[in-house]
Design goal:
Blueprint lengths: L6 H10 L12 E12 L2 E11 L1 H7 L17 H10 L7 E5 L2 E2 L6 E8 L2 E14 L6 E5 L6 E5 L6 E4 L6 E5 L5 H9 L3 H5 L13 E6 L2
Parallel strand pairs: 1-8, 1-9
Antiparallel strand pairs: 1-2, 2-6, 3-4, 3-7, 5-6, 7-11, 10-11
């Protein structure tokens, strides 16, 4: 069952069952992301993620989850998958880096995992709390979302709500910097490497950082 396998295993299995050409290039899965930086009492307390997966991965990972066979997947039917996938993201640092006032923050276990189907795209959402609330002081909060191994390609949504702030002090603003060009083409051109090159990368690798989506939150 999809709920029993680790996140990366699910991704790879979905690709291998899909088109033959997709399995030969990186990335394997595409995600349209939204992020919300959460504040309380003037301190950053967490990041709320919303990730919409490409149709091929969405179709694979939801096989057999329509419990009542009505042709629709409800949040309740997807709850177990949401919890398992969110838990397994710990291995990859939740694909999230956050610095507040120049100091990298540590996260605790995610909360409020949920999944929903929107058309043919599966969307995973969860709250990623900081271990300790962080005061920006005169500094800024810098958020990066990416996969170090570039197994998964993250792109922030084009909509105005791609990055939002919740509970932030008055006057705080968020700006988004997206990687330049087509990341997949850049990866092919820069490496010319086989799939083995990418399979050797780990969560400690920095290869995928060049494709990171970055958010800067500045407060007066």
């Amino acid at each position: 069952m999809p709920t029993a396998a680790p996140f990366r295993s699910l991704v790879l299995a979905g690709v291998l069952l899909g088109s033959g050409t997709a399995a030969q290039a990186h990335p394997h899965v595409w995600v349209i992301a939204k992020a919300q930086v959460v504040y309380a009492d003037g301190k950053v307390t967490g990041v709320r993620h919303s990730w919409s997966f490409d149709p091929e991965y969405s179709a694979f990972v939801t096989q057999g989850l329509d419990a009542n066979k009505d042709g629709r997947l409800t949040p309740d039917e997807l709850a177990s998958l949401a919890a398992t996938n969110t838990e397994n993201l710990a291995e990859f640092g939740y694909f999230t880096k956050l610095k507040v006032a120049g100091k990298e923050q540590a996260f605790t276990e995610p909360k409020e995992p949920a999944m929903r189907m929107e058309g043919n795209a599966l969307t995973l959402s969860f709250l990623l709390p900081l271990k300790s609330p962080a005061a920006p002081g005169r500094g800024v909060a810098a958020l990066e979302v990416y996969d170090p191994t570039y197994f998964v390609s993250f792109s922030f949504a084009d909509a105005g709500d791609a990055v939002t702030l919740s509970g932030a002090p008055q006057g705080c603003t968020a700006s988004v910097t997206r990687p330049k060009g087509d990341g997949a083409k850049v990866a092919d051109a820069k490496t010319g490497m086989s799939e083995a090159f990418f399979e050797a990368l780990t969560a400690a690798s920095n290869y995928g950082e060049q494709f990171a989506n970055r958010v800067i939150v500045a407060c007066p």
